[in-house]
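Thread: Newbie trying to understand structure tokens

Hi all, I'm a second-year student working on a class project, and my supervisor (Dr. K.) asked me to get a predicted structure for one chain before our next meeting. I've only ever worked with sequences, so writing a 3D structure as a token string is new to me. If someone could post the tokens and maybe explain what I'm looking at, I'd be very grateful. Here's the chain:
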Amino acid sequence: MHELALHVLDLVQNSLEAQATSVWLEVSENTAADLLTIRVMDNGRGMDKQAAANATDPFSTSRTTRKVGLGLPLMDMTARQADGYLTIDSKPGKGTIVEAVYRLSHWDRPPLGNMADTVRTIIVANPELDFHYSHSVGQTVFSVSTQELKEILGEIPLTHPDVLVWLESYLKENTANLYGGVQE
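---
Reply by user tm_fold:
Sure, no problem. This is what the structure looks like when written as tokens:
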């Protein structure tokens, strides 16, 4: 995966496959500490300690459709290549927290990618998911949740064509504002 945003999609998909009904995505770009942190938290079925420990092994997967799982192992590898790390904290019946930390300025750190499109894809593809997104760049923070959007929209679904157009613009504008209004 060439962009970290694609890893985020994979992590959220893992949460959904673990029967999560709520997913929290936090992205923090801390230029002062030279760190990029991506954290995905869910309320899915969770894993026991052994399964969590094996999750970064590409030949250890709970999938029945194939014998190899590359999402977490690749993210772990890219984090380590950029002077970072990946941690998995999971408890059966409680959910999972995956955190990947990268040195922000490291030349081997993959680009973050288009988070606005990633978040829009997650929201539109999973309209019943309780999804929370928070992204900070230094002291500037943007956050949105499907719960807030649904309260504002009332009976209008998140997948309504007019909502989709607005959502794309809203996410792109607010993500650009994180960087001083400059489009990524």
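A couple of things are worth pointing out once you decode it. The beta strands are 22-30, 35-42, 85-91, 95-103, 130-137, 140-145. The two ends are 18 Å apart (CA to CA). Feel free to ask follow-ups in this thread.
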